[in-house]
Amino acid sequence: MTLMAPGTELDGFLVEDCVHAGGMAHIYRVRYAAAGREPPFPLAMKVPRMAGSDGTETIVGFEVEHQMLQVLAGPHVPRFVAAGDLARTPFLVMEYVQGRTLQAWLDEAEDRRERPAAELIARLGAAVATAAHSLHLQEAVHLDLKPGNVVIRPEGSAVLLDFGLSWHAHYPDLLAEETRLPVGSGPWMAPEQVVGMRGDPRSDIFAIGVMLYELATGELPFGEPQTRGGLRQRLWMEPVPPRALQPGVPAWLQEVILRCLEPEASRRYGSAAQLAFDLAHPEEVRVGPRGRRTRADPWRTRLWRWLKAAGLHYQPSPLPTQELASVPIVMVAVPWRDVSDATLYSLRLAVERSLGIRPGARLACVTVVDSGSGLPGAPGRNAVELHRSHLDRLRQWSAGLDLAGRQVSLHVLDAGDAAEALLAYARQNAVDLIILGAATHGLKMQRFVATLPIRVAMDAPCSVMLVKQTLPFDALAQADEDNAA
């Protein structure tokens, strides 16, 4: 289809200018043609190319994106407005997202001939991972994440674009019905996509890993393969460690990137929320040999990986929400004021039970302190000493848990309002379950006063488990009261 001139009217929309002319579609800024009718947000119209040389994938991609935009919601996807008739002039009208694409960040780094700082890479990556997790919670997988399809808003959040290759658990997979060939953009395609598997949310995690790799090094980890054989190399080929290309890349960032790029989906992050968590808390990343490597694998290792890939059979993944349910982020709020040993022990038992039925869960141990109040019995200690002291308490408390092979992190939050601090942490880190004591501060008026546990339970963005002191510790609690008297 030829470019539409500014001023063209199409089904009640007035074309203003073309903002993107790509190989698959043209994108225009538009507004309502009717005088006096103003949209609540800027509008963009996407018109697919319908040239005779274009394959059926263009039409199918249009149908898929139309379907996806109508069912997806939230701040990480553009809002859907209208669609044109496929038999006449197909188009999609949606929110015009203000911001810069991730490709623009890459281009700027290339022009300046310097890589973005690790903190900026982590911030951008966490924004993209958070957006992908929002999609996965809606039973959808993007399957075409790449720098040109990610817009970073001015305040730092990410919006995902171009859902023409996407997959949704509740709708027919039109692309799978149309072709058996690998579907996606070569440099960012996950190994399971190469062999025809669609619908695994960890495929999006692989694509985010490719983007992080390019931000950190300026290179693509698997190049730009043009053949199916070239694509299949990622089933066994390890990318060059980022630190071999850019020695300034921190070991924790390389650990995160290479974990995203594992050929086997089961060895990547279990969820995009867990990836976002690590990027937001780099000090909590457990760095192993993968993060410290500075050279490519020897040929023997590459041969072994090739032999292993030759016999690898990818299995269809469960529904995205079922997959995510097995890898939640569990947060336990560990109190430090007016708390008995019985309550702390009961919290530990509840955490162990919760982790026991969630094999891929990540645990975040959180305590909230007010640096202005000092430590009980030790007034006048500064904020740094207070933080270290409570971090040590958390470490001692968590030492009693069976955490073999699990990821655990410890966080001390400084805030005057403990309930609001816990809620903000849960929202920012996509926590799936909050565990806290039902009577953390020993108040007898729980049913009449909005205590901390009640406030958290009322406003939490996820499930909350309130833990009561277990019966065997009644005597211990009485002893505590006697000692206080």
Walk me through what this model shows.
One of its GO terms (molecular function) is kinase activity. Keywords: ATP-binding, Kinase, Nucleotide-binding, Transferase. It comes from Ramlibacter aquaticus. This is Protein kinase. This protein is of the alpha/beta class and 485 residues long. The chain folds into three domains: 87 residues, Phosphorylase Kinase, domain 1 (2-Layer Sandwich), CATH 3.30.200.20; 224 residues, Transferase(Phosphotransferase) domain 1 (Transferase(Phosphotransferase), domain 1), CATH 1.10.510; 157 residues, HUPs (Rossmann fold, 3-Layer(aba) Sandwich), CATH 3.40.50.620. Helices cover 38% and strands 15% of the residues. The protein has a six-stranded antiparallel beta sheet, covered by helices on one side. Strands 14-13-12-15-16 form a five-stranded parallel beta sheet, with helices on both faces. Strands 7-9-10 form a three-stranded antiparallel beta sheet. Helix 3 packs antiparallel against helix 6. The longest helix is centred in the first third of the chain and has 19 residues. The chain is globular. About 2% of the residues have low confidence.
Structural class: alpha/beta
The CATH C-level name of the largest domain is Mainly Alpha
Number of DSSP E strands: 16
Mean pLDDT, rounded to whole units? 86
Estimated share of beta-strand residues = 15-25%
Low-confidence stretches: 440-449
CATH architecture label name of the largest domain:
Orthogonal Bundle
Helix content: 25-40%
Distance between the termini: 85 Å
Q: How large is the radius of gyration?
A: 26 Å
| CATH structural fold name of the largest domain | Transferase(Phosphotransferase), domain 1
Instruction: Count structural domains.
Output: 3
The helix count comes to 18
- Spatial order of strands in the largest sheet: 1-2-3-4-6-5
Q: What is the CATH superfamily label of the largest domain?
A: Transferase(Phosphotransferase) domain 1
| Biggest sheet character | 6 strands, antiparallel
The outline comes out as globular
